[in-house]
Amino acid sequence: MKRLLKLFLWFLFALLNAFFLWSGFFLFKNGYYELAIVLYSLVFLINFFVFNPKGYPYRYVIPALFLLFILVLYPIYFTVKVAFTNYGTGHYMSKQEALERLLYDPNFTYVVDDEKVSFKVFVVYDGLTPTDDFLIVFKVGEQLFLGEKPVPVRARGRNVILSEGRMIPVTAEQVNVEGKTYRFVPWSEDLADLKMIVLGEKTYRAFYYSEDEFLRLNAPHFKSRIGQVHLSRADYIDPLGRKFALRVGETGDWKFVRVERLYRLVYREAMEDGKVRRKMVLVNNLTGKDVVEKDGAFYDVDENGELRFLIGFIDFVGWRNFLRIVRDPRISGPFLRIFLWTVVWATLSVVLSLMVGLPFALVLNDPKLKGRNLYRTLLIVPWAIPVFISALVWRNGLLNESYGVINKILLPALGLNPVKWFNDPFWARVGVLLVNVWLTFPYMMTISLGALQSIPPELYEVAVIDGAGKLKRFAYITFPYLMAIIAPLLVSSFAFSFNNFTIIYLITGGGPPIPGSTTPTGYTDILISYVYKLAFEAGQGQDFGFASAISIMIFFLVGGISFLNFRLSGTFEEVSR
Amino acid sequence: MVEKRRDYIRHPVLIFLVVVVVFPVLWVVSTSFRRDEAAFSTKLFSSRLTVQHYRDLVSPERNIPVLIQNLQNMLWRVKPYSDWTYERLKKAKDDELKRLKDYLSETKRRYDSAKASYQNVVNKMSERAETVKTQVVNLAKALEEKVSVPSLSFSPELGAALYEVLRERGYSSDAHLALKTDLEKFTGIDTSSPEGFQTAVEQLRIFYEQLGGTYRGELSALEEKMKNIQKELESVKRRQELVQGEILGMNLIFERDLFPEFTSISETLTGLVSLKRNLEQTKMAAIFFVDDEIFLRTVPSLLERSKEILEKLEVFSDHRNLAERLKSVVASLGELSEIDEVVRSKTAYADLVKAYENLYPRLERSLTELSNNLEVFESKFSLLKELNGEIEKLQRELQALSRDKEALKKKVEALEKSLEEPRRTLSLKVFSHQLRERIDSLETIKGLRTPDLLKYSAFIEFLRNFANSYRPRGEEDEVLKVVRETLRKMRWIEEYRTFVSKFENFSRNLGDVLGKFEQQLKDFENVSDQLLRVASSGVFVTSEILNNAYDLVKMDFVRRVRAEMSVAARKAGTLMDVLPFSDLRRDLRNVDSQLFRIDQIWKQKTKHYFWRWVLNSVVVSLVVAFITTAVCAVAAYPFSRMRFFGRRYGIMALLLIQMFPGVIFMIAIYDLLNFLGKYIPFMGVDSLGGLIFAYLTGIAYNMYLIKGFYDTIPDSLEEAAIVDGATRFQSFYKIVLPLARPILTVVFLLVFIGTFNEYVVARIVLQRIENYTYALGLNVFATGPYETEWGLFTAAALLGMMPMVILFLSLQRYLVSGLTRGAIKG
Fold first, then answer.
1. Which has the least CB within 10 A, A348, B400, B705, B781?
2. pLDDT digits (tens, 9 = 90+) for B291-300
3. Closest Cβ–Cβ partner in A64, A379, A532 for B663
4. With 90 as the cut, is the pLDDT of residue A432 above it?
């Protein structure tokens, strides 16, 4: 029994190895080289741990390692890498993919209007409903062609870039295509007369023909189920090699036209350092000019010699993203503002919530106070409520400028004017601080309570004997002791506030916006919400590269603070014990 | 510490602070039970309560609009009806129809109940018409007593005030009657006849004007005049600016065009002059006769013209440069005009003449241009002068007028001040007189029907008008306070009137709408089977009857019934509090709740996915908590028990890395999920699998927590087991893990709470509204069309926070000790 289990486990392990190796290969094939390397090194480590008796302790760590590698180390690597690129709106794909798109994507074609092409679509019906099994009969000039459903020839993942179908010349009633015999019923050279095409048991019935009033009724179905799905990225190629594709005309009618690829690949040779160098370039078939590659994008040159943006790709840009923070005045100004506000926000959050929490802790620390557990429990409630709920309640119910309780009931009752909590920079900042203090003072209260209880009571007795007053006792015993204990917690609380994205995002969304900035910035934005806006809010275009650069800066800032904190709190010693 | 604290101070302060702190929670709780629209209410709490929001959230009722839509969907055979058989469809349709009919009869039943209660209220109120009347009349009489008119002292101001008060009330008869004695006393004229009244008024007017009553008219006339002058001034200024611009343009012509031109001409001419001087010294006599006719003819004429122009030009000192040039031209021409025979006889004379003839047209054209320009310039100049003069004149006028105005204003203010006291007294007098008359007319009211209510309303309106127009004496005016108080006491009458009229109005329309709806249901029932049969044979079918019914519910009902019905319900709620007859409360409450229920039956409600969101959150949180706990529990073991390379700094490094905020990773993880999703759909972006994957980042901290607990389990237990033949893994699995159950539970729950509360990562990963977690879903309740639907939002918030708060509070012991553990030990 035991051996069987062991055998089974080994089998499982082998399977896992096989799976990892295959996925690594798969990743490699799809251009995720780094991830593939991460995976392979992981496989290597795992096997090492499993087969080497000295690696026994590591075997326990394997699942954790797996998650850490994929979800922590790889993202860090990725962030660093992206920080040196222009990854973002307009620059989504690798250069290879951009080239492929230019060469094969149907968007980069031009229409050659030399022959009249008409077509008729035939489909197989399932009862009353048409299926998407279809054939197309073309008439180019006087010649009839049969086209089968196109098959994908180039794809990225599940996204088809290009599919192709062959056009088979039709001269007689029966046509043989790769062993299949299509029979046209009734046989006619005229598209209008063709009723159906029979293939063995299957019957393709006339479905769409633009000249036929009755068949035109099927146009919506043809467009949505066949045209957009199967034909929008498809080329039909006739025996002469001419390409035909479905295009929407200026009048909105869908027709097949002869198309040509706009670009072709050419190698240019040039002398460099006395040697011949070959360089890959794209040539525009219409103008005959070379496509220009500049700043991580391809450009067409038009008659006036001006550049026209074609497609962008991810390109290495060196330190540019970091330099932008310093050099571009429209970025550095708001950035400095955001940075300063982030520091002010984190500091004030800690200080103010301690100022609110500590008095509560001092009062509740008195064991003679009746019902102090009840008080404590009630005061902890703001901390216990999920942050997103409190944030939404504050934003929607309390701070809302026109309906909110504060503006509508509290301030008028005190004889004050309503406050623009979301549109005035100063009050927006006050608002988010208010909410954050409300949320975090219970934490401060709790840790202060814990710390207060660890102060030895003898100290107070001695102090009382020495005649120290209340204030003196607080200043010379309570406060220093307290600070020594909670200082590390305050520092980590500072680090947490520094990156407290949820509050800012849910309450003001960073707003009100700072005018005159090229990036999406607001007066209450902190660095992390700035990063989020840069990366994920496509209003002004995503800029992953710049976002990553700022991320790395945050990384070092917070990392430094945390490192100091570990030194302070003695976590290092504890771990190494 | 021997000290006594005073609990009677500490407790109230603490209680107050606790209330302030938990106020948002109290607000959430109270708002979630409110029946009125809290977002638009000016009150913090309401007594009209309901659990409807919770019902809408937890099990949304399939009310009338939903049912009709379902029926339509059945006919259109959209999901989920697309593959149902005819029999199943028919049964479902019959069910829905039955439900609709039930709702219809429920509406009727509830309406009847509301109507009965309403009738009851109206009847009882009618019975109490007398009581109401005496109450109102008593209030009014009390008011009348309170309104004491101070005695009037005779003074010219009294006359003026009399005149003003009478005029403001349009010399109406009741004002006249009220003030008759004063009027007669003041003027000494019997005013019983219209003529007498007129003469008296005329006399008052004279008084008024003597005292300065005309000042006001004068002031406004003056202001009008000033406005006109201002307007004129503006238009003149605009014209002046135009001219000024043109002059600047002309200056440019003089400087840039004519000046260089004349510079070159004058230089050429100087050259010619010196040529002429040299001629006199040459010896060669001319052989041929030189044709100098043009020269001789034009030089003098040009000289004349130049002189004329120069004279004009010299006036403008700004053009001195040009004038200098022209002067030199004149001088040169003057010299050239003096040609004697000696010169004419010289050979080189021909050269001079030729050169001059070349220059001459240019000179002539330039002179013409200069003189033209000068002419234009002169005319512009005089125009500018004229306009400037006008501007100055107007400005002076305006200044004078504004001085007058200030003086007048002061006078008017003084007059107003002196008139204030008598005016207030007189208007009080009129008011008390009118009040007496109104009370008389109030006393004639017999019942409490609509016309009677209107009369009461008119009385209230009268009081309100007085309160608005009356100028109080200082902040604390007795009269005004009393009037306001009386108004407040009578408010319920107006509330009652609105309640009655709204109820009557919507009742009329409701019968109509219900009748139509019933007919439509019947019609549909007749054809529905056939329609359904056709639909299930694959043909697209619609039902006009259903469409009409849907329109009826969505448009007619809302427009003709709902608006007034909800006002009636709201007023019923208010009346419960303000009506002085407490025995009617039960009926009013019934009206309120029945109408509210009818509204719920007919109201189109927005669709939401509350349970779906909760389920998503719970599933994701459970899976994440389970995986994280399991992985951490295993991984922490060697860190606690074994020695190996990397043990010392491994966790440290991880803890440091963990300090970095997750949002930063999201770019990479989003990219990764995007890639995975192309091949493994359930792990992609916008899938729960992907979200779970993205959440599995919180390893290090939890590992650290668990390791700390393992450290407290004595080694000897395991050693004993190993001596007994257990493997290392067995000793971990069978001894350490069970002992560590408390910390594992805590970690599990912490991760569960943390994941449940997470917002950002979910926001990035999830897109479709059905896939939302609870956190995202709640945001849907707080934005867009829901922004002011606080009932639903607060109910959802409360339902979401309750379990989390309870969980948190029950865990707080562990949490606190975990937080401070490291710190206090160090």
1. B400
2. 777 888 888 8
3. A532
4. yes
